[in-house]
Every structure is written in structure tokens, then in C-alpha cells.
Fold each of these.
Amino acid sequence: MFRRVKHWGPGLLLLAPTIILVGVFVYWLIIENFRVSLTNQHTAKPSDKYVGFENYTNLLADPNFQHSLWNLLILTIVFLGGTLIFGFLWAWILDKPAKGEGFFRAVYLFPMSISFIASGVVWRWLLSSLQTDQPGGERTTGLNRLLDSIGLGFMQNDWWSNPTWGIAAIAVPAIWQLSGYVMALFLAGFRGIPEELREAARIDGCSEWKLYRHVIFPQLNPVMLSAVIIIGHMSLKLFDLIRAIVPDANTYDVQVPATMMWVKYIGSDYADAAAIGMILLVLVAIVVIPYLMYTSRAEKR
Amino acid sequence: MRRRLTLIAAAATLGLTLAGCGGAEKPAESAAPPSEATGKVGVFTWWADGSEKVGLDALVKVFNTDYPNLTFDNLAVAGGAGSQAKSVLAAQLKAGNPPDSFQAHAGAELQDYIDAEQLEDLTSFYADNKLTEQFPKDLVDRLTVDGKIYSVPSNIHRANVVWANVGVLKDAGIDPTKPATDLDGWFADMDKIKAKGKTPLAVAGSWTQVQLFENVLLSSLGVDGYNGLWDGKTDWKGADVTMAIEAYKKALSYTNTDRDSLSDWAPATQLVQDGAAAYNVMGDWAEAKFAQDGDVAGTDYTYFPTPGTAGVFDFLADSFTLPVGAPNPNGAKAWLTTIGSAEGQSAFNKAKGSIPANTTAKTDDFSEYQKSAIKDFSQDKIVSSLAHGAAVPVAWLNDLSTAVSKFGGDGNVAGLQDSAAAIADKFAK
């Protein structure tokens, strides 16, 4: 008996602080949050009456919440698509032996070192919705002014001030910021493919396109999956960037569940805020858990 | 060796658990009068910059003279008309770790804190300091909940004021000294300004749109109709409300299209100062901005009640509270005494551009605007502001703000009316 304790005891002791901290500050808080989401505490007044899943059904039936989910979907699609396309293109260009590769790699990666809050303040100005042909148009700034001054005035638009597609404009700074990261992932993927494989393919008479199509791309699949998971869960949780670009948290056009949770919380509607938090957790879990299962299986192999 | 390690680990675990449990310590109740209080007084506000900071500093100066034994601890949190501060405060109160006193808008916004039993009853404090006689009855009535008073107001603001650029009005052939008397007349004036290529009406993000909405409602429904929206006597689905929302839609059509990108009220007021826009509906804290930028009333800018609301004072007030479990309740009472005093109110309001709640405060050296507001407050009908938490609790205001923000995009009159009615049903008592 004592022997066995001696075997796993020190290890457990070493892990105990982590287990306790994670247990309290992650899992216990998730449970507590779930408990609050089942109560009817919609005002600051303490209330512990349980209403089952009523808050969830009310939220899912609420057109404002549905709109926020719709926004989240558009944001995720545009954000994912943008970062993957740019990240892949840049990695592909840099993969060819070219001069100044280190320089360009740094340039593309650099935006990632800026916090969303800091870049958001600049993007708020860049994405100003005023257009030159509108009343007061002489005050136009940011991208709209730039487009107008290079003769592309017809491309001016109201960016995020649009209830249907406005959220896609929020994805623009997010793409700008994280494409470099996806590029780094893909570049590592490219570099991980041995040169011999390419040579062998060329000797077999592969065209350059077929080389990529049948030799390189299949080997990039794990990288691609990692990128999708990382960017996808960031997109689902995106809050700070929206908060920094849009001055008022309660702006309908760009409301996503994360910002709506904040608005509910400020308004002391703790039950609804907790319920939105749980819905977000489930959404992120749907993305992350299959990935974790996949990697752990891959590691076992 | 191993045993020592075990001990250390056990101690560390225990320490962590204890740290997690450390809640608020109950202060020892003592009957000493505020004048003998010592120590630090932590006061929570969102007055972190601009005229608000100047006002707070002036107030602290009076406080330090009144109570040299107490140290003022500034716990201000900046940003977003107090929305940032309110979330920080909510977390502190929930954790049972309140400041000694915190700022809250007087009226319905206080209701949340009262319901949560987070505020001490200050009725006896009012009696001890004879504040009931020094504050206007209208105001005291609005502070009283079930016969009890929970806060001491520091200042009064008016939310139904239009600020206008004199030069822009003259260019469009409008007499700045004779503002329109109703919304239709005002919209006619705006058409003239639009014809000159200027933005007629400047507005900023969500909460300033709610304030504009509130002004239009007040103007088209009148005092009783407006008040009825909050106590259930006015039907949100009525035809008069439809007309009011139509008028709001028309008003929005005159505003700057980049309204949602303006970070706060100040950039919208700046448009009027710069001559890019003619009018801005804003609370009278704008007066402090005009004064700070060296603009002269009458020649550079002018002000008048929102057309259709002359004789009505759309009121909001900041007030200070004594939270349950304050670490230094006597010190907090000393702070509240300074807030309520005539000297404290003179010093604070002169700098902030608002008017004193205490009618005995000296106001001889206040600005022209402030003097006119003091006069109006004493004779006008008083209504509570929606956008600033005086008329409805925060949760109601939040939901309505979302609906108004949505309306800014889709302009769906029936949609806004239906959601406003649904929200009113949800929160009506």
C-alpha cells in the first residue's frame, strides 16, 4: 500500500496546486455560472428561484440574440476565410527561395504583436462610415478618404454601420492582425516537407501544379486544421476588438454574443448574461473538443 | 525532507483556499459623529477627466478644509458615460467589497442597488443635516423610495437642451434668437441648413441617440404622455407614440451618417463648435465644453430647450450613497455632509457646469447658462431623463437602447414601437 502511495504521491503533490486552482477558477466557476443561468436573477436583487432552461429558450427566441448569432457566423466565415487565404498566399510566396525573406516574414508577423485594443483604436478611425458624397462629406477620414483620393470613390461604404453585413468590416482588422500568424503556421508546414519528396515528384514528371496538388497540399492538412481551430475559437470569443472599434457596447449593427453578454451583465441581468456565457462555451467546445480528441489520438499513434 | 515538502505544500494549498475566501470584513459600528472620523475615505466616481475632474477636485478641496483629519481616496474609473465604472462597481458590490461612497444617477438607476440591499438608508442623515429643507421638494420626492432616502445629490443636469452654432444659423437665414417652438418648425429650419450643405443635427453613438429619442418623445407626447411611458399610463402601442417615432425617424434623417463612429457626446458637440453642424441635442454638461474651449454664448453658440419642450426641465442628477458594509462609514458620512453642503455644491457645480441641488448654495458667479437653468428648474415642470437612468432601471434602459440602436440602421417604425412596448411590459411593475 505504502509503496503505491510512494509511487504516485509525489506526482500528485506536485500537481495539486494546479488541480485545485484550475478546479476552482475554471470548473467550479463554470458550474456556478451554469447555476446562475438557470435562475431568474434578471435584476441586481438577489434571486435564487430556478426556472430551468427558460432563459435559454427565451434567448434563442429573441430576434436580437438571433441577430447576434448571425453576426457571429458572418464574422467567423470572413475572418477564417481571410486569414487562411492571405496566410497561405504569403507562406507560399515566402516558401520560394527569395531575397529578403526574413524581412517580409517579420513584416507579416508584426501586426500580431499589437493588442486588439490598441489596433482597434486606429481601426475605428480607418473604418469611419462617413462618405465624401454625403452631407458633411468634407470631414471624411480613414479608408473612405483614401479610396476617394486614389480615384476609387465608388468603393466607399459605411463599413460596420450596417445591420446585415457590418460585422464583416470588423473582420478586416482581425484578418490584418492574424494572417501573419497563419502564414507562420503554413510556412512551418511547407518547411516540414522534405526536399527529396519534391525532387522525387519532379523526376516522375510532375508539373508544378500537380506537385502542389498531390504532394504538398495533403501534407498541409494538419496545419490547416490547427489554423482553423485557433482562428475559429478566437473569432467566437472576439470581444476586445469590437469593443475598441465600436464606441458604444450596445450597438445593434455589430452585436455578437460576447458583446451582448457584456451589455446584459452591465444591466445587472446576471441570469441572461450567464446563459449567453454557457451558449458561447458550448459553441467553442464544439470547435475545440473534436480537435483535442484528434490530437490526443494522433499522439498515441 | 519529504515531510517538510508535504507541510509546505499543505500550507500553500491552505493559503490559496483562504485567499479565495477572504470577503469583506464588517466594520465596527461606532456612534462617533462624522466630524471626529479619521482615516481614508474611498469615493468611487466616473469623473476622471474634463470638467468633471475639475469639479471633483474643487469638491475635494472643500472636503479637505472641512475635515482635515480625513484623507480623500480617489477611486475614479474612466470611460463611456460611467458604463465602465458601473461594471467595476457591480463586481465590487457583489463581492461584498464596497467603496465608502459611490456615485449613481438619482432616480430609477438607484433602484437596483436598493433592491439588492446594497445601500444604507440615509433618512436620518437628511434630518440631522436639515437637508430636506435645503433641497427642492420635486427632487427629494424623486429620491424617496418607500418613504426612505438613499442618496445625497451633488448636482442637477438638464437633458433637453439644443446647442446651436450661431454662424451656421445666420448663413441659412435663421434667427438664432428665435428658435422654433415645435418639432415641425424645427425640421423646417433644418431643411434650410441642409440646403446650405451643412449637417443640420449632430448626434453620436447609441446613448446620445437614446437621449435624442427621449427629447423627441417628450416634445411630441408632452409631459404627461412622456411620464406615462414609464409608469404604464401611456400606451406604447398608441397612435401618438407612432407619430413620435415617425418624428424621431425624421430627426435622424437630418443627422450625420457617421454617428455610430463618434466615440462619445463630445465629438458631436465639437461638430457644432466647428461649424460643420448646426444643432446638437445634449445635456448641459456641453456648456462646460463650450466654456473650456473659449466660445462665447450669444456670438459663437446659443442654447434653447428642445423645440416643443419649453417650460419642461428634463432632469438627471448625480448623487452619492453610503453602501452597506462601507469600511469607513463615519468618513463616508463626512463626505456626504460636504456633498450636501452649500459650499461644496457651489464649488463643484461652478466647475462642472451643472446647477446645485442645494437651494442655499451661492450661485452669483455662475455662468449665464447656469443662472438660466437654475431659474428654469425652480419654475418648470420636472420630468426624469430616460438616457441617464432617472426614468427607468438600467436593465430597461439597456433593452430600449438596443431597440433604438437597431432603429438607427433599419428605420422600422413599427419594429421599434413593438419592441419598446414589449420591453415596457417586461419591466412594468
Amino acid sequence: MAVTVSPERDVVATPIQRAFREALYAGAIALGLFVLFIGLRTDQNINNELILVQRWGLLALVVLAVVVGRFLYVAYAVPGLERSRAERAKAPAVAVEPGFVRRNFNKIGATVLILYPVAMVLLFGFQGSLKWVDNFGIQILIYVMLAWGLNIVIGLAGLLDLGYVAFYAVGAYAYALLGTHFGLSFWILLPAAGAMAAFWGVMLGFPVLRLRGDYLAIVTLAFGEIIRLVLINWREVTNGSAGISGIPKVSFFGLMSFNVSDPNYIAKVLGIAQSGAYYKIFLYYLILALCFLTAFVTIRLRRLPVGRAWEALREDEIACRSLGINTTTTKLTAFATGAMFGGFAGSFFAARQGFVSPESFVFLESAIILAIVVLGGMGSLGGIAVAALVMIGGTEILRELGFLKVVFGPDFTPELYRMLLFGVAMVIVMLWKPRGFVGSREPTAFLKERKAVSGSFTKEGHG
Amino acid sequence: MNAQVSMNDFILQVEHLSMKFGGLIAIGDLSFQAKRGEITALIGPNGAGKTTVFNCITGFYKPSEGMITLSRRDGSNYLLERLPNHEIPARAKVARTFQNIRLFSGMTLLENLLVAQHNKLMKASGYTFLGLFGFSSYRQASAESIDLAKHWLEKANLVDRADDPAGDLPYGAQRRLEIARAMCTGPELLCLDEPAAGLNPKESASLNELLMDIKDNTGTSILLIEHDMSVVMQISDHVVVLEYGRKISDGSPQSVRTDPRVIAAYLGVDDEEVEEVLTEVGDEDVIEQLDTGPDAAHGPGSSASMMAGPVSDTVEHADEGERVMVSRGASKAAQVDAKAKTPRKSSERATGKPAAKSSTAKPRGGRK
């Protein structure tokens, strides 16, 4: 790739000849680059002396790999790609009918999600399914919900919010404090937490209405940090960085409880064997229901005037004002709605963990949620769900890769490479699909046929 | 509809409007009226402050001084300079388009027109809550809004592309869509900022048709800024000419077209003629004033910008060859004006209120 060939020579040389030549160049460059990095290594010997270890064999292997790789790439991969591209160009421009999976993506996705715990229980038994339902299922769905909530603010209204985790924290602490002090049920506190987060969304919204773009991002980031620092320092209420533990579990709508000691413990009521898996499976369906609620509300809102106003705001704020749209309330509703779903997710998180502390609400969480939204494609629910699956599921699955120890030695812990892989994955996806997995936008209304709007026309918003 | 009291004949009355940006006077004491059901054109050379007038009328700027009154058909009056930006389209029913097209490019044509009906739909959807639960009242309103959008897409000849993104349209079609979008807000006054800019003659003709159609069939009054004289002269009923933020002419297209001040503003005056004009102006009053006051002519007059205070200052002070060169950048229209008036020798000129002078002295100026 690095070697550019002038066009005249390009015509003369056959691919094989050219590949051979380029392979030699690449090998020479690799040798020059790696001779000091790989060929020599400094180390300490037993007397604490600095010694030079020579690794010519390894260097030869690397250089050889580069030579062979370059040869294969130029001789076979490039002509192959060109041929297939030419064929595609020659073929009549028939609109490709999307495949079965793509057409019914939402239905298939929902079905898989509903059947997932059942399948896990059948495969691994109650005890074995715990990990798959809790670590994977619930964890991913929490992020799906958070990302869908943030999608309203960023994807639809185009307001870059870097402090979204603050609303997650508000929801979590609202449930944790009110639940432990007043013993209120989850089912009362869930809407209360949402309302409180929405209130803080409006509180954040008011001062930042005038800001746009980078400035808005910085202020929201500061807001997220303020909330976290208040949680750490307001010890009388939040118990500081020690956090709040003993948060009550969610009950089955008050009918059955998941505490073994309670008289209405689910196993006693239903007359089945005791297991911790019931609670996890119940929580899975609970967060799934919350996710469906978020998706339903988002889809509905997009077809309502307020949702269209959000998108119009993202496209052009001045034009919005010229059409009589009150941009102030429109922005505030976007902040409040997004924050509300963050609050729901937060109270669910507190109920699931049974423990909250400020450590769960660091900036990195905001960044991960934002990364999921961007990776999935701003505004698209399906793309964001897939991105959450890849990002969160991918990092969780690293824990399962014990067999890599055989390859890389017993000290190798794949979890430590989480952020590295995260970054590499993001760079690759952004190169391959700059607008995220789903870059196109579904119109909210149509006269004759619903045509997806290409990502090149939509704007990202400017504040 | 013009059979009402004379007050309601005018949809828009701009009185003594001034807009200053720091020391820069973009509009100075501008007064004009737009009649209901007519097309009023606002013309003038580049930098004359036409778009600034529009921004004041549509609330994007708060004017420094003056009053803008909009009278709606039902008799209610709105002082536009006091309304918040977004309430001008919503309550006073003034819609506008932009010189550089501002469409929602990532949304389809239909969606663009639906966004324009935001306030109506917002009410119908019970401020989102009824609509969220799928009440039938919203569904009906939504169907009606789509019908209205379709109506305007047909008028703008864009109905075939209703489901394409607005950013995909050719330039002329984007202009028409922007007008259709403004019309979907149900305006009583439609402000168009250079609707024919960048259009070829054929597109320009179809734009004229669309505007005439709007005027005849909806009763919407139109205020437009335009450089394309074929559009202005063909469709407008009334023309207001601005130069350096001041009104230099006001009347029917025919009268404006032959007005020497307008011709001077657009084409300039010959150098010799300028000299002639200015020597004529240099009468005793001015020379007297020049002796006592500081020499202002060399300052702002040479900058050829709107910084140049009241333009007549520079004209009046110049009484010799050297000064003539300096003031050439300033208002050509004022020179003609001055030339026409020299025999009358108005004493109010010395008071330094040039705008007051122009509104009293002008034969076809202002109010009727």
C-alpha cells in the first residue's frame, strides 16, 4: 500500500511481477523498521547488568510474513477485488432486495431476546444459565436502554451530551435512597426515578440552551462530573464513596418476592426448587420490557410533531425558528426525555446490583454509551442495539477466552486488553462505515413509498 | 378584503426602523408599508440592508429603534419587534425563506412540510401526550397535515419527489420547496429573501407563476427581496428601494424604474456630473457650517461602507474638487436628490437630520 507505482510501469508489469517487486520493497521497509524493535532487545541478566538479546529468528519470521503478505495482497487480493468490482459495475443496477434477516430484523431480534433466557436455561440448567442471563443478557440490555435514551438527545435532537451518566446516577441513587430509607417499592420508585432524572435533565438544559457544539459538550461533561462529585462528598446523604448497600430487590409486582426468607418467596408460592436464577430471569424480562418501552416511545415520538421538531432542530435550528417552533422547549423536552430513560435504567441498575457507589458513574461510562450510539448509527435503534451487543458483549466475552492462555502463556489475561480492543474496533468500524452500522435514516412519513434517507444528507447537529 | 378601514389595508407597517450594530448603521430611519394582498418588493444594491430589514421583521434581530406593526386579517395587531423570534410565525403568521436555502436536508420533502405545521400538530397531539397513546384526534390532524403538504407539493411541482431527501433536490427545486414549506405554516405575510437567486430564466418564470398563484389564491401578502428585475417588475405591485439602509424610492414598479435616484443608485452617476452636483450643493449654508464644524468628510465618507453615518453629511460638506473625490463612494442617490433640491435650498438640511428631510421632500414618499 505504501509503495506507489507510476502508471506507465503499471501497464507493463504483470500482477505477479509487480507483486514480487512490491513484496521485496515491503520486506526491505519491514527489515529497516523492525531491526531495532524486534531484532534486538535490552534485558537484565542475573547480575542486574544490561544486556542485548539478539532475536534474528523472530525478525526473519516477521519480515517474511510481511513479504508473503504483500505478495499475496498485490498478486491475488487486489486483482480479485478489482474483478469483483468490475463485475458488480457491469451487472444491471437491480435494486438488491434486502434479505430475509434484514427485512424482519426487528421481529427476529425481539423473538431472540424473549426466548434467550429459556434457551440458556435449557442449555445450561438454572445454575449454569445465571452467567449468560445476568452478565450478558442484563448487562447488554442496560446499555441498550441507556444508548437508546442518549440517542434521543444526540441522534435525534443533535445535542452532544457527554454527561449522560449523570442521569443514570440520579436514577440509581433515587431508587437506592428512597428504597432503603422509606422502603418504597420499585414499582413506585421507577417512575419517580425517571421523573427526577427528567427534572435534572431540564436543570441541565436551561443553562446550556445558548451553547452549541463543542461548548455544549464541555458543559454537559462538567455536569456529569458535578453529579459524581456531589455523590462522593455529600456523605450524610449518599454515604460517600462507600456507596449504599442493601438496596431492596424488585418484587414480582408485590405478589411474589425473591427473598428466600420471605413467606411469599417465589419458590414457596409456586412450589418449585429454590434458585437464584429466578430473580435474574425476572430482571432480564424487566429490563427487556423497559427496553421495549424505550423503543416504543422513541418510535412513536419520531412520528409526532415533537420528534420531527427534534430532527429538524438537528438539521437547521434557524429554519426551525422561522417556522414557529419554540426551540427552547424542544431542546428541553429532548434533554428531559433522554434523561428520563437514563433514570429508568439507573433505578433498574440499583435494584439489580443491590449496591450503588459513585464509581459506577464515571466519565468512561458516558463515553461508552456515546460510543455505542455513534457506532450503531445516530438515530437508528436497530444499529445501536447491535453496537451495544458488540461492544458490551464483546468485552464480556473476553473473560471467557481462557484458552488463549495456552497460546500466550499463563500470565495472559484477555480482560486487560478490553480498552485496546475497544479502540481498535471503533477505528475499524469508523473506517468501514463512517456513519455507524446503520447510517441511513427512516423517514417518519411518506406519500408513496418509504425510502431510507442516505446518511450523506442528514446532519449530525451542531449543538 | 380591502374594503375595511384604511388602517387594515396595510398588512405591514414599518415606522422609523433603525438597526445599528455598534457604530454601523445598517438601517437608518426606514418607514414603508406593505398592502394586504399585494406583492411588495424590497430592492437595492448589495449591502443596502434589505436582509437586515427582513431579519428585523421576522424577529431574528431586535431593531435598535422603530416600530413594526403587523395587522392580521381578523383585525388583531402585533408589534413584531416585541415578539420572541418563534412567535412571529406562530402568532403573527409571518413566514420567511432564506437567501442561502435552509432546508432540513436529511428529511424528506414531505417531512419538511410537516415540520412547518408543527404548532398546529402539537395542539392536535395534545402536546405529545394524546398522540403518544394513539388518540384518533391526532391521527385525523396528521392526515390533514399530509393533505396540506401534498397540496403545496403539487403547487410547487414537487409531488413526484415527495419521499426523497430535501438535500437531493436541484437548486431551483429547493427554492420552490422552501416557499412551499413557508406556505405550510399558513402565513398571512410571506417574506422571500431573493427567491430567484441562482435560477435560470425558465425556473424564474415558474417561480413567478407560483408567487402569483399564492397571491391570487391564498390572499397571502408577499414581501420579497430580489435582484432579478424581471421578477420584480413583472409581479410586484409596489417597490421600495433601499440604499445604505435608507429608503430612496417607493412606489409602483414603473415609477421606481424611472426614478433618477434609483438609476443613480444602481448605475452610478458620471464623474463630471458628480462634480457638477456637488458644486451646486455647496451653497452658503454649507460653507458656513464647514467653517465652524470639524471636517467629517474625510472620515467615514471615504470608507464606502455603512459606517458612513448620514450620507448627506459627506455630500454637503464637499464644495471643492478635492472633496468630490472623497465622497464618491457615498450615496449616489443622495447626490441626485441634492441636485434636484438645490434651487429650493432647504434650511432643515443644516439640522443634520437627513432622513427626516428625505421623507418630507420626496414627492412620492411614504404615507398616503
